[in-house]
Amino acid sequence: MKILIATDTYPKQLNGVSRVLEKTLRELTRRGHEVKIVYADDFMTFPWPGYQEIKIALFPGHRLTRIADQFSPDAIHIMTEGPVGIAMQSYCKRRNLRFTTSWLSRLSEYVSIRYKIPVRWLHGLLLRFHQAAAQTMVTTESMAAEARSLGITRISRWRRGVELDKFHQVKSTIFDGLPRPIMLNVGRVAIEKSLDRFLSLDMPGTKVIVGDGPQLNALKRKFPSAVYLGVREGEALTECYSAADVFVFPSLTDTFGLVNLEALACGLPVAAYPVTGPRDVIGDAPVGATDENLKLAIEQALLLKREDCVAHAKNFSWDVATEDFINNLVATKVEQPAIVDY
């Protein structure tokens, strides 16, 4: 197929949506599909206030129309609800084309937290955006239930995977000399990740933050005893996972959290709040602990076996996730049955 994917976050940003798209693009290409990504850098942009690393497309409609017409896709998928996604949806409506969307982040909650906009207003916009699609893809059953509660009716699952060849247990001395246990968090350092809930805990050991983002400097000033390593990728990130004792995921808003799978693949148990994302990743397996008391969750997770974490991560495959995506796509045009004159 010729597949056109529209997104506001790809390819240079370090976030879950961009990483999902990167893996999916690789798998789709490997299967012989021709994929065109339309993203913010295709247009004039300006930085999102407070998130300088996020570029917002400025009036993408005209150029997007030219790109889409020239590519003439068999299927169109809209990954995000930003200006590029909205422009692509408008294009599809003008051309009378069917399309799919995905609900991969709680953009409504993020905007509400930062800009104090009532979340119910934003949920109304979210419903209108996704209800126009032939299918809205969500990651978990918990997210499917949330989508239905908002009024989104055409829902399909798009599961997640982990690169087991990249994320696995390795020998690492990166945290040697630091007080144990090593409590690790990896991800974007932003207010919606609730990192202050983690860093403010009174616990023995060392709290380590891997990542960058708009809240980093404020957290360094407020919690100077934590270790801040900045962005780590590839083998350096795998070493961090492998050398830590517990992965702490304090976010209350993530829809999944790929970093949880990466941690498990490296033998690192997860401690989190009992919310969508970690709850769906962990399930009933003895690979993590969720509790409204994050300190208690960490203490429980530290007792779990690393080999169980690795075994659980093997249940998540990008091959299966990509098959989900392909099966959920719809043809842009519905073939009209031939009229036979008897």
For the record, give the distance between the C-alpha atoms at the N and C termini, rounded to a whole number.
35 Å
The helix-strand sequence is: EHEEEHEHEHHEHEEHEHEHEHEHEHHH
Q: How many structural domains are formed by the residues? A: 2
Count of helical segments? 14
Q: Tell me the number of strands.
A: 14
CATH architecture of the largest domain: 3-Layer(aba) Sandwich
Global outline: globular
Strand content: 15-25%
CATH fold-level assignment of the largest domain: Rossmann fold
Biggest sheet, in brief? 6 strands, parallel
Q: Rg, please?
A: 21 Å
Highest-level CATH class of the largest domain? Alpha Beta
Summed over residues and divided by their number, the pLDDT gives a mean of 91
Helix content: 25-40%
Query: Unreliable stretches, pLDDT < 50, 5 or more residues?
Result: none
Sheet/helix structural class: alpha/beta
CATH homologous superfamily annotation of the largest domain: Glycogen Phosphorylase B
Q: Order the strands across the largest sheet as they lie in space.
A: 2-1-5-6-7-8
Notable traits:
single chain, alpha/beta, Rossmann fold, 2 domains, 6-stranded parallel beta sheet, 39% helix, globular
